[in-house]
Amino acid sequence: MTITFQADLMQGKTVFITGGSSGINLGIAEGFARHGARLAINGRDPAKLEAAVAHLRSFGGEVEGYAADVRDYAAVNAAIGACVARFGAIDVLICGAAGNFPAPAANLSSNGFKAVVDIDLIGTFHAARAAFEHLRKPGASVINISAPQAYIPFALQAHVCAAKAGVDMLTRTLAIEWGALGIRVNSIAPGPIDGTEGLKRLTAGPGAVDRVTRAVPMNRLGQTADIANAALFLASPAASYLTGAVIPVDGGQSLIGSGMVLQAAMGVGL
């Protein structure tokens, strides 16, 4: 990762990240670790969580991991409470836990739909609600990880579109309600990010990754560092008057609509 910001940008700051043991969220955690933050990451799989904590500690900072399912409010509340007991008030909350799989709506079970809504939307609310009393006031930054499906309809993604649209409206509502307390709330909507489980699930066919890459106006896949840099900006004083925003970090993918992207990824004709 190229260091874009001052190395001590997050020195002395406490950052809590849901879903922080893998994928984009682990990449975000790496970005904050490189910039001096005290990190608390959350995940469901204790083994993955332990490995992620060991990796993040290699950057030299303080890191703790808390196993919890974001669908379980009591578990999330306990994890955040443990973080606060260890590090003090939370300066940055990143809500990134998510689930995704392609499925036509006519074949999607009620449980499958509900699982994604519960993880993405309800899980984001659980983390924000549990953290609220412990967010630094004024000065805290809440960053929700959204997706282009929040504002662009994608075939085979009815569950994700519904969940992520909810995340973005939650972002805007909390920005209004918490703004007077000095808490900023924003969303990042990542495009196709190289090496992530989400990209693998949506590009399982032969040649799909190359087709998706060519369908992105910048003609490259994103890197987790791209999302980490956006999160660092939103958490920094440079974004002190920015709240309620949904920021696409997608190489221009959202400009061309879902049809071309879906056809590129899965060979689906619309």
How would you sum up this structure in a few lines?
It is built from nine helices and seven strands; from the N terminus they run E-H-E-H-E-H-E-H-E-H-E-H-H-H-E-H. It has 270 residues and is of the alpha/beta class. A seven-stranded parallel beta sheet has the order 3-2-1-4-5-6-7, with helices on both faces.
Write a structural description.
The chain has helices spanning 23-34, 46-57, 73-87, 110-131, 158-178, 197-202, 208-215, 224-235, 258-266, and strands spanning 14-18, 38-43, 63-67, 92-95, 141-145, 184-190, 246-249. With 270 residues, the protein is α/β, with parallel strands linked by helices. It has a single domain, classed as Rossmann fold. Strand 5, helix 5 (158-178) and strand 6 (184-190) form a beta-alpha-beta unit. The model has no long low-confidence stretch (mean pLDDT 93). Helices cover 43% and strands 13% of the residues. The chain has nine helices and seven strands. The chain has a seven-stranded parallel beta sheet, sandwiched between helices.
